[in-house]
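Q: I'm writing a short explainer about 1-deoxy-D-xylulose 5-phosphate reductoisomerase for a general audience and would like to include a description of its predicted shape. Could you first generate the structure from this sequence?
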Amino acid sequence: MRKIAILGSTGSIGRSTLSIVESYPDRFAVVSLAAGENVDAAFEQARRWKPRIVSMATPEAADSLASKLSAVGIRPLRDMEIVFGAKGTVQVATIPQADFVVSAIVGVAGLEATYEAVKAGKTIGLANKECMVAAGELITAEARRHNKPLLPIDSEHNAVHQCMRGGRLEEVRKVWLTASGGPFLNTPKKDFDTITVQQALNHPTWKMGQRITIDSATLMNKGFEVIEACRLFHLPPKQVDVIVHPQSTIHSMVEFVDGSILAQLSVTDMRLPILYALTYPDRVESDLTFPVHELKRLDFQPPDMEKFPCLRLAYEAAEAGGATSVALNAADEIAVAAFLAGDIRFNDIPLTIQAVLHETKARHPESIKEVLSMDETARSLARDKVARLSGKTGRPALA
Ligand SMILES: NC(=O)c1ccc[n+]([C@@H]2O[C@H](COP(=O)([O-])OP(=O)(O)OC[C@H]3O[C@@H](n4cnc5c(N)ncnc54)[C@H](OP(=O)(O)O)[C@@H]3O)[C@@H](O)[C@H]2O)c1
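A: Of course. Here's the predicted structure. Afterward I'll give you a sentence or two in plain language.
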């Protein structure tokens, strides 16, 4: 029986993980959950799964969860511990009873707990790519020290992980990460300034959380994935290529030195990579079938780095690593939030990130504390840039 802690249980990946647990009651049990502020969803999950401990992002959310649970006869402290904040998330991630941690909090908020889980010797199912972008070098070093796998849940890296089982790392010529191209693949660049939040949230193939959906529209998500692939599979950026594949049927490919290319195909359903990670190294029967006979065409084209400068910025950060990579994620997080709030335009997202990278000194953090401090510096630069772009400083907005 695999005993699971879920970080980000109320999110898209968290809920899909729980649906897998529901389908395989003899294989998996939930021992702890961490959520943000969605008290209603956390309440339903706590009531259903009876974990030993639940963490919420704020004390208010934790209090509210505790009173809802009391009202249905679940006594906080006695039956279930309710904690909160970054410390609470770490408690959920390092609970001794869990042997597997699903890391699916969005953004750098999930970093400390993911790192502490690796340090505590847990096996990680990794969805949170931002923590690999910000601190991939530190996390992979720690996982190697404990000889524990980091099992990617991100569909592309999960596909690469599967294909990598067909050869040795030194036999890899190249990794091909496929990209759907997002909703603006065929939108002319001249129209990018008028892209609305609604349009950007309308992803053609996947239903995901808001941050990753906007990141998919700017191709920053693919950029993050390039960095994640470099860190997870110990490859330099020049060995990780992006190819636009609008059908999202092939989730990624690995090309070996003899010229063979292995690809992984499956339905576009995140439950499959989650199931793979949870059952690795075994495979178990599932109802997730792909209708091969309906497969009519597979299209590919190179990404347009002029139209999607976020991808170019991510390659630069992949090369530089350290503080540049931390700043890439931090600046993107602030810029995406500002776009979602209607404060800046779609085109301002890469402008903000570029400005922050420009002002970031190349350094390599030696601890998570240092990563978090670099993250804070980059956020403050990004907030400043956003304020200028949105004209909220009282100064005129920049073009
Ligand atoms: N969705 C996908 O298909 C997909 C695919 C590949 C990779 N990923 C990656 O997986 C991660 C999660 O994505 P998602 O789409 O599941 O996002 P999501 O639906 O927005 O869910 C995010 C989760 O993080 C929690 N959270 C946010 N801030 C928190 C904080 N300060 N402390 C504790 N929990 C916090 C949220 O809690 P509340 O809702 O309670 O506030 C929610 O449970 C991201 O890193 C994303 O890039 C997602």
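A: For your explainer, you could say: The pocket of NAP is lined by residues 8-14, 34-38, 57, 89, 104-106, 109, 127-130, 154, 206, 208-209, 212, 270 (CB under 6 Å).
Q: Perfect, that's easy to follow.
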